[in-house]
Design goal:
This protein has ten helices and no strands. With 198 residues, it is mainly α. The chain has one domain: Tetracycline Repressor, domain 2, CATH 1.10.357.10.
Length: 198
């Protein structure tokens, strides 16, 4: 029952907003009593915390699956972006924006875990791109990783609409890729960008 509550609550939080969904709403949607929810979660914050942790785990599980597909480094980033777009297609307001505004303590925990994962993911992607000749081999990988995640986090924390955040994330991905790409990498980037318009 606990997993079902987390699943339904998280779906509602992402669709309708963390702040606007109440424990009553969740109970009503699941046709259970509010008491049942409180049996597992002492308050709404605990439910949000567990829900965001599971979303986080799911995202990185899917990213791992994408990485195993052996796309080239640039294609891989576009596939990951496609996954985010699909995952949050029914979300109106950026989840990170909402957390920062209404639940700052949970937001800090989410960011701490995301930074670590993003560091690893972006580093692996850049190293892969260098090996494939798509990214320049004379770049300071650590610095470019910091530049990129700072851009992405800033977009998600300050942009209210999820659709707008996705558009800005694509711009950031193009900006990041052009900054480190070889001529071969630029060709691959142009190919991926043209595929988006088909």
């Amino acid at each position: 029952m606990k997993d079902k509550i987390i699943s339904k609550a998280t779906e509602m939080f992402l669709k309708l907003g963390f702040k606007s969904v109440t424990m009553d709403d969740i109970a009503c949607e699941m046709c259970i009593s509010k008491k049942t929810i409180y049996k597992y979660f002492g308050n709404k914050e605990l439910l949000i915390e567990e829900g965001t942790a599971i979303v986080h785990q799911n995202i990185y599980k899917i990213i791992d699956e994408i990485v195993l597909q052996n796309y080239n480094a640039i294609e891989e980033n576009f596939e990951i972006r496609k996954m985010f777009k699909e995952m949050f297609k029914y979300t109106n307001t950026s989840p990170l924006y909402q957390l920062k505004k209404h639940y700052p303590e949970i937001h800090i925990k989410v960011i701490e875990s995301k930074i670590e994962d993003c560091n690893e993911m972006f580093t692996q992607n850049i190293l892969k791109g260098i090996r494939q000749g798509l990214y320049r081999d004379n770049i300071d990988v650590e610095t470019y990783v910091k530049f990129y995640y700072t851009l992405i986090f800033s977009i998600n924390e300050t942009t209210q609409k999820e659709s707008e955040a996705l558009k800005l994330e694509l711009d950031a991905l193009e900006y990041h890729t052009r900054a480190i790409a070889t001529p071969e990498g630029v060709k691959e980037l142009e190919k991926q960008l043209s595929n988006l318009n088909i």
